[in-house]
Amino acid sequence: MYVCICNALTERRVRQAVRDRRPDSVAAVYAACGVTPQCGKCAGTIAVILEDETAPALRLAAE
Ligand code: FES
Question: Is the CB of 42 under 6 A from ligand 1?
Answer without folding.
Answer: yes
